[in-house]
Amino acid sequence: MTLYTSLVQPFVEFGFMRRALVACLALGLGSGPIGVLLMLRRMSLVGDAMSHAVLPGAALGFLVAGLSLPAMGLGGLIAGLTVALLAGLVSRFTSLKEDASFASFYLTSLAAGVMIVSLHGSNIDLLHVLFGTILAIDDQAIYLVAGIASFTLLLLAVIYRPLVLECFDPGFLRAVGGRGSLYHVLFLLLVVLNLVSGFQALGTLMAVGMMMLPATAARFWATSLTALMLVSTLLATLAGLIGLIVSYHLGVASGPAIVLTASAFYGVSVLFGRSGLLRRFFSQPHLSN
Amino acid sequence: MTRIPLAAAVVFSLSVLSSLAHARPLEAVASFTVIADMVQTVGGEHVHVTSLIGPNGDPHVYEPTPADAQALRHADVTFVSGLHLEGWMDRLISASGYRGTPVVLSTGIKTRGMEEDGQQITDPHAWNSAANGVVYVRNIISALKQADPADAADFQANGERYIQQLQALDSYARTQVQAIPQAQRKVLTSHDAFGYFGDAYGVSFLSPLGFSTENEASAADVSTLIRQIKQEHVRAYFFENSGDPRLVKQIAAATGAQPGGELYVEALSPADGPAPTYAKMFRYNVDQLVAAMKASH
Asked: CB contact, 8 Å: B230 with chain A?
């Protein structure tokens, strides 16, 4: 097997592989930077919470419009945003920390969703239907994922400075008259949007992995925020590419293959990264001298 | 003197009991709509059937509710298709406190296995050939007779009529399919649910998922399938009413296969749909498949 047949030919021969790769690239562009910001804000687990929080919206969308992806996606988006906003509000204005309020709201939302599904009595596995697999990306899904990635990059470019300030020194932002809550809310909007896009491509279980694992791996290589975002995007896209090729040649399910590739990046980074374990324990020349 | 009233009382109370037993239909629970309909057809007015999974539901990944456990608890007799289709049923039965073991309707059919990812597994979709449907009906007849001997004659008569109907459907399917050239008898479906149908009537079914809807496809499966479809010139593809159609749509788009419509596999349609009973479902599937395979040339 030549390099061409093993790496390039699958994408040349099959449209579904090309579409999957484009979706991975778009996901990397959107989720990479968002994952880094989530990690830096110590909100790494919020993505997981949100993936449960979208259920009632998706269920309501299903009840209203039947098996329509736009209706269910929109419902999920609204439910996710509501949970994110409410949790953000409670943590801003009360003494409850953000993770605790997120936990309360997403669990409420999840239970409401399961309740709605069971009230309807239908046995169609809603989340399974709503959030597909990377191999079944159709035109509709690819426009959605690419649109969300573009919107994310544009909005991030617009609110980059105040958002970063809000992350690192909210007191200073307030002192210079910035509206911290606004940027926080916009950021949460981006988080939910990117998760919805990830769900379309990878399913609820795997989407968060594509968002967080490249970001945590990048932390071992880069220090500046810009570099972190670049490395994270690069790793996410690369994980998509390698995961797809592995799935193609070894016959393993694609979603887990992509996320496990990202996990492998993380493992390698923990060991060999610039601030990884090996450097820390074995190369300290300036101290040994 | 005292003996006669006693005897009369005994006779009277027995007749009351038997009329009570008669007034109250046998409570039967079936795991999904297809076999629920078969039990209803054989049982007629003497049996009240509850199907745990509703119309258009997927029996592979069902989440039981407390109402299901309650239905089971009050059941006089329960029916499953078996062959590991309803994996959730055993736990539900032990949790509900139902005494007795469910009647496994696939008992006695010749099962077909398939190698899937290196493991030998049995195809559970046995009812998709009408000849197997007859075996199901025979099992239903004997189970109902045992549960309610008083109405045995009715069960037998209903069952015989039903079996004749299914045998007619069986030969209908055979003649319909045989009118199509061998090379054209190929279709794409979303999961491997038509193996028995294919074996019985000579149609090849290709699908990206295995016997169960639960597993996720790999890029290798999908690409192999696309190549195969192109090579063998499969021109028609079908959805199933209980599954996610997107993957099979993608494969069809990549190969130029034409939509043949929706097939009913593991669940009947609601009463106003095209496949509200097992017999209608079978005929509907045959007609859909035959039309698509004919058109594909």
From this structure: no
